[in-house]
Amino acid sequence: KVDPAELTVLVTGATAGFGYATVKRFHEQGAKVIATGRRQERLDELAQEFGHERIHTVKLDVRDREAVFKMVDNLPSLFAEVDVLVNNAGLALGLEGAQDAVIDDWDTMVDTNCKGLMYCTRALLPGMCKRDRGHIINLGSVAGSYPYPGGNVYGATKAFVAQFSLNIRSDLLGYNVRVTDIEPGLAHTEFSEVRFKGDTEKAKKPYEGLQPLRKEDVAETIYFAATMPRHVNINRLEVMPTMQAFNPFKFHKE
Ligand code: NDP
Ligand code: 8X3
Known about the structure:
Bound molecules: NADPH dihydro-nicotinamide-adenine-dinucleotide phosphate, 2-hydroxyethylsulfonic acid
Structural class: alpha/beta
Largest sheet: 7 strands, parallel
Helix content: 40-55%
CATH architecture: 3-Layer(aba) Sandwich
Low-confidence stretches: none
């Protein structure tokens, strides 16, 4: 098994949800962690929580290509050799049908979930290849495999994440650099608050009457993939709440 205390882990979107839980999981096991996100006050709280030890925080919007590359170039030497990149920053916006969706929301999802993830990957991969040691862990979703009404662009961005993950695996054959796509189902984080733009009532609905995944469950899955022996690559890992499953096809009848 990989010893987490020997790892430097960079997490995007570390200010909430899976990202925060992932920082905590790795940090408590002795890893050095770079926590990034847009909300500075949350990053400050995080550094405080972990005693400013083995933690480096950077305010970063993954959509800003220049800032992503600058962040990687400017990492302090103690954190410069990143072993694990957790490409977690992402969001869904809206649940309208494609015919009614807000096109700016589509842009934001593509810019964050696809392009931001691409930039972080591209910025860190050369170092990983040079050191012949690394792991890119992407946050996909069940929404990338199974369609649902209103999932239009969000699901498509996650299908991109799944295929991008497989394709870069092909590019990296011959290097000790692993690539994993973690594909969670319904999980209770700030995800729904963001999707419904602060409409708390709507945001609560998906989680009512069932036990969704907790952020810690997903962090554990990420941790599992990262600490498997180096000869093992988890390609895709789909994880759902026990209380979630599939619908049959629907038909519109005249
Ligand atoms: P949260 O909303 O709780 O957390 C999302 C994180 O992403 C926040 O830390 C946010 O931080 C950050 N973020 C959003 N936009 C940007 C940006 N442009 N630049 C940098 N950071 C950004 O959601 P989850 O923890 O649930 O989601 C994490 C990932 O998991 C996402 O990719 C999501 O699509 C995916 N996912 C979620 C599922 C769920 O049901 N919750 C299921 C399957 C996948 P800040 O605002 O400070 O920048
Ligand atoms: C998040 C899961 O089903 O809300 O990716 O799209 S879902």
